[in-house]
Design a protein that fits this description.
The structure holds three protein chains of three kinds. Chain A is α/β, with parallel strands linked by helices. Chain A contains twelve helices and twelve strands. Chain A has helices at about 1-25, 60-70, 85-90, 105-110, 135-140, 150-160, 175-180, 195-200, 205-210, 220, 235-250, 255-260, and strands spanning about 35-40, 50, 55-60, 75-80, 95-100, 115-120, 125-130, 145-150, 165-170, 190, 210-215, 225-230. In chain A, helix 2 (about 60-70) packs across helix 11 (about 235-250). Chain A is globular and about 50 Å long. Chain B is mostly helical. Chain B has a domain at about 30-190: MetI-like fold. Chain B is about 80% helix and about 0% strand. Chain B is built from nine helices and no strands. Chain B is globular and about 70 Å long. The relative contact order of chain B is 0.15. Chain C is mainly alpha-helical. Chain C has a domain at about 65-220: MetI-like fold (Orthogonal Bundle). Chain C has twelve helices and no strands. In chain C, helix 4 (about 90-105) crosses helix 8, helix 5 packs across helix 8 and helix 10 (about 185-215) packs antiparallel against helix 12 (about 240-270). The longest helix of chain C has about 40 residues, at about 50-90. Chain C is flat. The relative contact order of chain C is 0.15. Classes of the chains: A alpha/beta, B mainly alpha, C mainly alpha. Chains in contact: A-B, A-C, B-C.
Chain lengths: ~270, ~240, ~270
């Protein structure tokens, strides 16, 4: 009898606790304004996105985001997420769009939607100085190449290099792949030519490595350029963004902030 | 190169060209998550332990499943699952009740994830501690006509504390270290901030050592408080060992 | 870490369900519900990717297990001196052993791993002597860093356990050994060490399960263990829940197998008077 009573009391306490917990989790988070969370990869990816010492994100892509959001009248908030979970973060609504040098590919379009492209750069390969590497399957045979996971470069390396006997090593961030090239753990790194250039200009990059050339084109894998990643079915947002990209291209804003970073047209042909 | 790659102390200075301030910010958010997650875990643990000891067979089995899964699956996997699925699920449940979705901030998600993991651990610690309370004390309280809640508040909880504190203290230390795993889902706590700083400056050794020192300091300071707490809770107990 | 805490963190042999307990009505109901859930997951979620990845999953599991057993073994070998020095060593051994355990236990394993791989590992190639040495092919790989970090971590936690175990061997037994005229080494080998290991065994089970739970961290330094294979599935299929659920199930099975094996060995070791 006594036991029974205790059990009931406990159940009540349990329920109260569960309720309190649920409130504690949700309570503070309900105050949501009409913000658009822009997902970027939480890693240094110069010159596109990179954290500075005061914790702010900066780079060409951040400037693009600001200009585009201002044009489209969106209240954009930078939300860093892990690169390898950036598409799940979008589909599970942790973020509302991806501005993370995400190439438009058929494979990704099965899962998410893209705006029009906002930049397009070639894909290159770097390696240790004095190492005679050519950016071809034959030139890399027997070597180890580092790529960032879930990138077009990984897909490219798996398709073209791996069958030729190249060991493909995958890294969570581009920066780690570069670091391992400098540390001599891989022989080459394949990535976006502009991002590689930024590494080669750093102290570490200058010392260890140089540019070995562009890889042969394969639009099926590399895609036509980089676009804003969006959830499927959000056509209104997509049209807003497309219009904004077009507008900043036409009114000179795009050119103005791009000049600070590049001496060529990053939009591509 | 070898020299300036790890003796460039100015990289750690607190204001802008140095990354020290950012590291401390990350450290603060690590502590925030650890405190929040630990508290949530404790709440879940009290509920879980009571349920396991006094609940019906169904409640007990369900709690057994919860603690078994958390104790058998790596924290890293749980954190990924909870981070993506947990918040999704919560929104769907809230949606089903017509409350509408909530925007779960990074901090809340982090606390939730660490809390659920810690909840299973503290369930086990508290269950062990409650079981160590002599049954006679609880029976005596009941004989005095105390309500079950009062027995819990006045007898069981205070009497079990000396048994629970060493375990709970360890859980706190584990909570502080588990926050580092949130780096894998891109949460800006100390470990991720450290990695970003290291990546941006290429001073890997310096930043990882600095972060290690911060974690270690937290552990050592915690240990001092834990020692004080243990002595306080054990007063009136016969000296053991 | 005390015995009870390890038990709270890791699934251990005491938690194994008993056979007869499955036949209660509410359990049968729960089992049926669980079966229904599994069927629903199998039917309504996407699993078409599974056959393609099976071979890689298999080798991933092997890598995880190799990581677990090699580091638990090496770590235990290190833990014995660490524990012994803290109990009886001269201060020039005692203090470093203490500091080692405190530092390793006071910092996250993930950080230690990255410190070794990206921090220390990136210094090596700057010394031509290392680059030309026979070790270089190994230092280029990721797994030695994973093994090193996991071994060190296991040694520090288990070293603490061994310290308690060495200290807990009744002084009378050691005195008796001395009275028999055993030398220090013989006494250590025949009495102290076996008794201490015996005392530490239940915790060793828990620590090994905890070690299994730590192994997926090596995936963050490019070791392709089962966690890394699942990450690859996630990246290639853009699925989140299915691969992670499978991964959780795989780890449950691994832990379960480990725990059943422990139970088997425990039953074979006589425990009279322990």
């Amino acid at each position: 009898m006594l036991n029974k009573q205790k059990g009931n009391g406990m159940k009540k306490t349990l329920k109260l606790l569960a309720l309190a917990t649920a409130l504690a989790i949700t309570g503070a988070a309900t105050a949501a304004a009409e913000q658009v969370k822009v997902g970027i990869a939480a890693e240094p990816y110069p010159p596109f996105t990179s954290p500075d010492a005061s914790g702010n994100w900066q780079g060409w892509e951040i400037e693009f985001m600001k200009a585009m959001c201002a044009e489209a009248k969106l209240d954009c908030v930078v939300t860093p997420v892990a690169w390898d979970g950036i598409i799940p973060a979008l589909t599970s609504k942790k973020i509302d769009m991806i501005i993370g040098s995400l190439s438009i590919t058929a494979e990704r379009q099965k899962t998410i939607d893209f705006s029009d492209k906002y930049y397009n750069t070639p894909t290159g390969i770097i390696g240790a100085k004095g190492d005679d590497i050519t950016p071809t399957p034959e030139g890399l045979a027997g070597k180890t190449i580092g790529v960032q996971v879930s990138t077009v470069h990984q897909a490219y390396a798996m398709k073209h290099f791996a069958p030729a006997g190249v060991e493909v090593k995958e890294y969570q961030t581009q920066d780690e792949a570069n670091q391992d090239l400098a540390a001599g753990r891989v022989d080459a790194v394949q990535a976006d030519a502009i991002a590689l250039d930024a590494f080669l200009e750093s102290d570490q990059g200058k010392q260890c490595c140089d540019y070995k050339g562009e890889v042969a084109e394969d639009v099926d894998v590399i895609g036509p350029g980089v676009g804003v990643g969006l959830r499927k079915g959000e056509t209104e947002l997509k049209e807003k963004i497309n219009a904004a990209i077009k507008a900043i291209r036409e009114n000179g804003t795009y050119e103005a902030f791009s000049k600070k970073y590049f001496d060529f047209d990053i939009y591509g042909g | 190169m070898v020299g300036d790659s790890f003796i460039n102390w100015s990289l750690l200075s607190l204001s802008a060209p140095g990354w020290g301030g950012l590291l401390l910010q990350g450290f603060l958010s690590s502590i925030e998550i650890a405190v929040g997650g630990y508290a949530l875990g404790l709440l879940l643990g009290i509920g879980g332990a009571s349920g396991k000891l006094y609940g019906g067979p169904l409640v007990r089995d369900l709690l057994e499943c919860y603690t078994t899964v958390v104790r058998a699956v790596p924290e890293l996997v749980l954190i990924l699952l909870l981070y993506y699925a947990g918040t999704d699920l919560l929104n769907q449940v809230l949606g089903a009740f017509g409350i509408g979705t909530v925007d779960i901030s990074g901090l809340m998600a982090g606390i939730f994830v660490i809390g659920v993991v810690q909840g299973a651990y503290s369930t086990e610690v508290l269950r062990g501690a409650i079981k160590a309370v002599p049954a006679g004390q609880i029976e005596a309280a009941r004989a005095y006509g105390m309500s079950p809640f009062m027995v819990l508040r006045r007898i069981t909880l205070p009497a079990m504390l000396p048994y629970a504190i060493p375990g709970l203290a360890n859980l706190w230390l584990i909570a502080t270290k588990d926050t580092a795993l949130l780096a894998v889902v891109g949460f800006s706590e100390l470990t991720l901030v450290t990695r970003q700083a290291a990546g941006a400056t290429k001073a890997y050794l310096l930043f990882f050592c600095a972060a290690g020192a911060l974690y270690l300091a937290l552990t050592l300071v915690s240990n001092v408080f834990i020692g004080m707490l243990e002595r306080h809770a054990r007063r009136g107990f016969a000296e053991q060992r | 870490m005390t015995d009870e805490t390890t038990h709270a963190l890791a699934y251990t042999p005491e938690d194994l369900p008993k056979k007869e307990s499955f036949l209660k009505p509410h359990r049968i109901l729960l089992i049926l519900l669980f079966a229904a859930l599994v069927v629903a997951i199998a039917v309504f979620m996407r699993w078409d990717w599974l056959p393609r990845y099976l071979p890689r999953l298999g080798s991933g599991i092997l890598v995880s297990l190799a990581m677990l057993f090699s580091t638990a073994f090496l770590g235990f070998l290190l833990a014995v001196p660490l524990g012994l020095f803290q109990v009886t060593g001269p201060s020039f051994l005692k203090v470093p052993a203490r500091i080692f355990c405190t530092v390793i236990r006071g910092t996250p394993l993930l950080l230690q791993l990255w410190l070794l791989y990206y921090g220390l590992g990136s210094l090596f190639p700057q010394f031509p002597a290392i680059r030309q040495s026979f070790l270089w092919p190994y230092l280029r790989e990721a797994w030695p860093y994973g093994v090193a970090a996991l071994t060190v971590s296991f040694a520090a936690y288990e070293g603490e356990v061994m310290r308690g175990a060495f200290a807990g061997v009744p002084a009378g037994e050691l005195e008796a050994a001395r009275a028999y005229g055993m030398g220090r080494w013989t006494m250590f080998r025949r009495i102290w060490l076996p008794r201490a290991i015996h005392r530490a065994l239940p915790t060793l089970n828990g620590e090994t399960v905890l070690q299994l739970k730590s192994t997926p961290l090596v995936a963050t330094i490019t070791v392709v263990d089962v966690y890394a294979v699942i990450s690859k599935v996630r990246q290639e299929t853009y699925l989140t829940y299915e691969p992670l659920l499978l991964l959780a199930a795989i780890y449950m099975c691994l832990t379960g197998t480990l725990v059943v094996a422990f139970r088997y060995f425990e039953n074979r070791i006589p425990t009279r008077g322990a």
